[in-house]
Write a structure and sequence with these properties.
Layout (H helix, E strand, L loop, with lengths): L1 H29 L9 E2 L2 E2 L5 H9 L7 E5 L5 E5 L5 E4 L1 H10 L14 E2 L4 E4 L1 H9 L15 E5 L5 E5 L4 E2 L1 H13 L4 E3 L3 H7 E2 L5 H17 L3 E5 L2 E5 L1 H4 L23 H15 L6 E4 L5 E4 L7 E2 L1 H13 L4 E3 L3 E3 L13 E5 L4 E6 L2 E7 L14 E4 L2 E10 L2 E12 L2 E5 L10 H5 L5 E3 L1 H10 L5 E5 L1
Parallel strand pairs: 1-6, 3-11, 13-18, 20-28, 26-27
Antiparallel strand pairs: 1-2, 3-4, 5-7, 8-9, 10-12, 13-14, 15-16, 17-19, 20-21, 21-22, 23-28, 24-25, 25-26
Helix pairs in contact: 2-3, 4-5, 9-10
């Protein structure tokens, strides 16, 4: 028994000596200048790594320096990257401290756990570079305080006249830069220049002078003058009257400045409303307009303007618009016309019309886009100079059992549809054939001769106002 105990104690002693030797060897050889076993820093396993290695690893962490957000009085948020402002950071001091805490044999006590550390980087600042960088930022050079600033009324490209007030809440740049630098040094992530205590330090307004107050009163008049809206409707097109239009109705002096009355209200120049109505007429009237027309044959033809189309009644519209403006009656308006057709858009022919292709001596009638009548015809006698004119017109009169009269003739017809002066579409019972080249030598006096059975049907379905396109 004694021999057994002796051997056991001997084994233990030898093991202890070997373990001690191993620990000493680890400390003196492997861990002499490196972190011992069981040390973690910010999630990095440091065993066997030197403090320099660990520092390099942690300093290379993405987003180490980060950024700071600056909130300004206009509601904007400006983000500044700290590394651009002379800020530097390193984990070296924290890593060195942790390394010394584990030097020697202290690490043995942590083998059971507790070897995880959270290091914080140490920051250093180059204030001269920081101020220089901040001072060059565009947004820190906008709306700077200047005691000479004033207020003015100017014409813009998008909103008529606008008030430009360069006196309110102007930035004191040097104070703002100092405040931002202090915030960065104190490791703030958000700096609000608009906060009450900071606003008093970073912003200042120029007091209003008597002249400025007069301009502000004039601005109230300009704003009220421009507060008028009207939408003109021209079929599928609209014309908006807003501040960009109304601002041009103010009377101006020889220097181009707004003329104000004794109450600081802009003076209206009625002739400018008349000028605007003439613009509407020039833009949206279609009487006499040359049109491109897609013929049934497939060709695209250009037809000279005739009597067909829309023409605004400029006198009525001037009176309406002047009254609406003076009484501040905004709204939507379909203009009055002195000449009016069914359609008011850019395509005022629409999809119900009579097409007379005089080159082909053929007539078609389309109703709501569907071809209803397709017939040969005979138009004006070319050899006699009685050619049917090429133009866009419309059916303006219908009559049954009419006698057509001219020099040396009086011809009765059953159906008559006048389309342009004394030119119309009618039956021609004296003709046995239609179409072809008949019109070249034996054509009409200018009318569109149509077979009786076709004319009977056409007369019954074509309404007054139907567009008629005549072309070769």
């Amino acid at each position: 028994m004694k021999k057994i105990l002796f051997r056991l104690f001997g084994t233990i002693a030898v093991t202890a000596v070997l373990l001690a030797a191993a620990v000493i060897a680890l400390n003196e050889l492997y861990y002499k200048e490196a972190f011992p076993m069981g040390v973690w820093i910010n999630g990095v396993y440091c065993t066997g790594m030197t403090p320099q290695d660990v520092t390099a690893r942690l300093d290379g962490t993405e987003g180490l320096l980060g950024s700071v957000n600056i909130y300004t009085l206009d509601g904007a948020v400006h983000t500044i990257l700290l590394d651009a402002c002379g800020v530097q950071a390193s984990y070296a001091p924290a890593v060195e401290e942790i390394y010394h805490q584990n030097k020697g044999y202290a690490w043995l006590s942590r083998l059971a756990g507790g070897g995880a550390y959270q290091a914080v980087p140490k920051y250093s600042y180059d204030l001269a570079q920081m101020k220089e960088t901040l001072g060059g930022l565009d947004w820190l050079n906008e709306r700077l305080y200047n005691p000479a600033n004033s207020v003015s009324i100017v014409k813009s490209d998008v909103a008529g006249y606008v008030l430009v007030d360069e006196t309110r809440d102007l930035l004191l740049k040097e104070n703002a830069v100092e405040l931002i630098c202090d915030g960065i040094v104190n490791e703030l992530t958000d700096i609000d220049l608009a906060a009450d205590v900071n606003k008093a330090l970073c912003y200042r307004s120029v007091p209003y002078t008597a002249e400025m107050k007069d301009t502000l009163q004039k601005w109230e008049g300009v704003r009220d003058f421009q507060d008028f809206q009207m939408t003109y409707v021209f079929g599928d097109r609209t014309e908006e009257i807003d501040e960009n239009v109304v601002c041009d109705w103010m009377a101006l002096d020889d220097d181009g400045n707004i003329v104000f009355d004794d109450d600081n209200n802009p003076v209206l120049d009625p002739s400018l409303i008349q000028e605007y109505v003439e613009y509407l007429s020039a833009t949206y009237d279609t009487v006499g307009m040359e049109r491109e027309f897609q013929a049934t044959s497939g060709k695209l033809v250009t037809v000279a303007g005739g009597s067909f189309g829309n023409a605004i009644d400029t006198a009525q519209e001037y009176a309406f618009l002047l009254n609406a403006f003076l009484n501040d009656e905004s709204g939507t308006r379909v203009p009055k016309y002195r000449t009016e057709v069914w359609e008011k858009g850019a395509d005022d022919i629409g999809d119900t019309y009579v097409e007379v292709d005089m080159g082909e001596q053929h007539m078609y009638y389309y109703q709501d886009g569907a071809l209803v009548i397709d017939t040969p015809v005979v138009t004006g006698n070319h050899s006699r100079g009685w050619d049917t004119p090429a133009k866009v017109c419309h059916v303006y009169f219908k009559q049954q059992n009419r006698v057509l009269r001219g020099r040396n003739y009086a011809t009765p017809v059953k159906y008559w549809m006048a389309v342009d002066g004394n030119i119309g579409i009618h039956d021609a019972t004296w003709r046995k054939e239609f179409g072809g080249d008949i019109y070249l030598t034996n054509g009409s006096h200018g009318c569109i001769n149509t077979p009786l059975e076709i004319m009977s049907e056409l007369y019954g379905i074509v309404e007054k106002g139907t567009p008629v396109i005549l072309f070769y």
